[in-house]
Structure formats: C-alpha cells, structure tokens
Write a structure and sequence with these properties.
With 246 residues, the chain is of the alpha/beta class. The protein has helices spanning 2-7, 21-31, 53-61, 80-90, 106-115, 133-140, 149-153, 158-170, 188-196, 205-211, 218-230; strands at residues 14-15, 37-39, 65-67, 94-97, 119-122, 144-145, 203-204, 234-237, 241-244.
C-alpha cells in the first residue's frame, strides 16, 4: 500500500525483488501503473527467486528497469545480496524499512543510507514480532516514523514535491490510479468541495463555507471534508485547513 500510494504520486520505487516486502513494493508500484526499478544480486539473466519471473517481466513491460552490477550468468551467492543493497539506497532519495529481523540484510541497506546521506524511514511494529526489531530500532536511533504515505510525502523537500505535483498534473486524468479497490462514489456535495480544494494551497473551513454558500448548506460543507479525508482524498491541517492530496 505504501509503495502504491507513493508511486501514484510519481515517486519511483526501487527495491531488490526478493521474497516478501520487496515483492510487495514492486507490485504496489505496478498497481499504480508506474515504472519501478529492481536491483538484483544475480546476473540479469538469472531470475531469483524463480517465482518472480513474471514480476520481472511486468516491471520491464511497465517501462521499469532491472539493474545488476554482476556479470551475466552470476548465480545467487549469499555475499552478493548485501553488496547490492548499497545500490538500492544509492539510487534513492530515501530508504523505507517496513519489516526486517535483527539479522536481516535490510540493516545493511539502512547503514548504506546513513553513509550516503539518504533519508531513513521506518514503519513501527509489534515489539514482540521478530520482523519489527530492525524498524523499531531504527526509529529509536532517529529514523522517521512512517504510518502512511503522507509521512514520507511531507518530509520531501518542497521543490521535489512541487515538481512531482506538476508532473502529476500533466498526466491524463484517464490513467490508472493507485487504488487496488474501486474509487468511492462521491456525493454531489463532496465533489463540489473537492473541486474547490487545491493540492498546493490549503483552505480554512470558513473559506470553504464562503465559497460554497450558494451551493451547499453549512452542515454539508462541514461534513464533506470529513468524508473526503476518510477516503484519503483530502488532508486536514491544523486550524481546520484542508488540502487535496491529489
């Protein structure tokens, strides 16, 4: 879901196409209809794990790339995977750790991110779950806690967000969205409120009331932003200021 929601906002997802979180990251980006990058620890003619052959084909078909520094024909040697993780972090503006045990190779990626001056994000997990050890430890050490895509988005430099928003605005409205489920059907009042809101400028609830006073009742104006926020279409800022997500 994180990969899908970030990809639909034109961030390129980079991962290692390993089993588990890596595979989910690539599939999320593909669900958003966006190219993504897989960095392998094998030769680009040796698919690993084998069950991800179709995923590799889908990445290329979507305009993405498969990257490897090792020669053709190189088989999956254990030492190659921690080494390739520095490429994953090096290609990225930030590294997001979702799950990883204490001895996971993801710790190598996190260390590389710190050495390469990349932003480091982590999703907290249950302290009794072994796969939460690395993200929870990284958060204790200063990684940014991530509960939703907004936590990453809001941390991006403003000029990067602006460029991505402009790029998204240039795309056709008919392109595939990031949602794995059908978009909710908006009521008329919700559509009117969404039309007034912008992605780069927040509006206070009183301003919404003023702009829509001839079209909606005050109760409809108060209710619609709450419903839109539940759908993930708008975000509520301090002071009852609302902004479109995209």
């Amino acid at each position: 879901m994180l990969a899908r929601d970030l990809a639909t906002r034109r961030l390129v997802i980079v991962s290692g196409m390993a089993r588990g979180i890596d595979t989910c990251a690539h599939k999320g980006a593909l669900a958003a209809g966006m190219p993504n990058v897989a960095v392998w620890g094998t030769g680009i003619d040796v698919v690993y794990p084998k069950e991800n052959r179709k995923l590799g084909e889908d990445i290329l078909a979507a305009g993405g790339a498969i990257v490897s520094e090792v020669p053709m024909g190189t088989f999956p040697a254990p030492q190659n995977f921690p080494r390739r993780n520095r490429i994953i972090s090096g290609l990225s503006i930030g590294v997001l750790v979702v799950e990883a045990s204490e001895n996971s190779g993801t710790r190598v990626t996190a260390r590389c991110a710190a050495e390469q001056d990349r932003d480091l994000y982590a999703v907290p997990g249950n302290v009794t779950a072994k796969n939460s050890w690395t993200p929870n430890t990284l958060i204790k050490q200063g990684a940014k806690l991530v509960a939703s895509w907004e936590d990453v988005w809001e941390d991006l430099p403003s000029q990067v967000r602006l460029e991505l928003e402009l790029r998204a605005g240039d795309e056709s409205n008919d392109e595939a969205t990031a949602s794995l489920l059908p978009d909710p059907v908006l009521r008329a009042e919700e559509s009117l409120v969404l039309k007034v809101l912008k992605t780069d400028e927040s509006l206070q609830i009183d301003e919404l009331l003023e702009r829509l006073e001839t079209q909606l009742t005050s109760s409809e104006v108060f209710t619609a932003p709450f419903e839109l926020e539940m759908y993930g279409r708008v975000r509520c800022l301090p002071g009852k200021n609302y902004v479109r997500t995209l």
